[in-house]
Amino acid sequence: MDMNGDFRILPSIASADQMRIAGEIQRLGDWPYLHLDIEDGNFVPNITFGMKTVRQIASYTEKELDAHLMVADPGAYLEELAGCGVKNVAVHLEALPYPLQTLSAIHKLGMRAGLALGFSSGAEAVMPFLSGADYLLVMTAEPDGEGQIFRARTLEKIRALSRLTALPIWVDGGVGPETIVQAARAGASAAVLGRAVFSAENPGERARELAAMVLYQNKK
Fold first, then answer.
1. Which sign, positive or negative, has the C-alpha torsion 157, 160, 164, 168?
2. How many CB atoms are located within 10 Å of the residue 137 CB?
3. Predicted TM-score of the model (pTM)
4. Please, how many CA atoms are within 13 Å of residue 206, restricted to the half-sphere of its CB?
């Protein structure tokens, strides 16, 4: 849970209908969060969208934006993301030759810095860099575009990170109504969801229902 005792649902616009992004954002109603998965086709096989689309999204909505950079050169995106008003930026440990420098650069631009851990990386890999991060993001599926499957073995990674640090832990990849509860019980305080939200008739209400469900299940 986050500092307010809430579980944060982060709808990923990359999983929405890309032919009508503005309409998909409208379908979220007053749900306050929007997640930007930026994939360059190099660091991961898939390509989502670039900064031109991010700028258009930022000018269209007042929702709190966070970005997850699955790119080969994260530093090249930071200034533009800050200029778009993005609040949180997660960068992959595996893409950073000097992780603490990049995390510091994010802070200097006025954003919160997330350290993302790839599907194949162990929890211990983040240990030297925890002091520079505001939150951790754990990939719970392999970033292969469509049809991502939540991998249950990543739950132990979340538990291990929860034992190592008090930093908030976000999860991203194949998360659905059942696995989101498992991730929360393992120690996650936020989850990125794509089709599980945008496939609903009312995505905003769906996000609200999922957040409430996690809180209810964790009280049992």
1. positive
2. 28
3. 0.94
4. 17
Residue 74 in contact with residue 91, Cβ under 8 Å? yes
In terms of phi and psi (left: phi > 0; alpha: psi -120 to 50; beta: otherwise), the region of 89 is beta
> Which are the catalytic amino acids?
37, 172
**Two tokens, residue 43:** 């660091």
Contacts of 166 (CB under 8 A, 6+ apart): none
Euclidean distance between CA atoms 28 and 197, whole angstroms: 9
What does pLDDT average to in each consecutive run of 10 residues of the chain (220 residues)? 71 96 98 97 93 98 98 97 99 97 99 96 96 98 72 94 97 92 96 95 97 85
Rounded CA separation 19/53 (Å)? 12
Work out the number of other CB atoms within 10 angstroms of the CB of residue 127.
12
- 8-218: in CATH 3.20.20.70: yes
Residue type, 62: E
Kind and range of the H or E run holding 208: helix 203-218
Strand, coil or helix: 137: strand
Residues 119, 142: contact at Cβ < 8 Å? yes
Terminal C-alpha separation, the chain: 15
Boundaries of every domain in the chain: 8-218
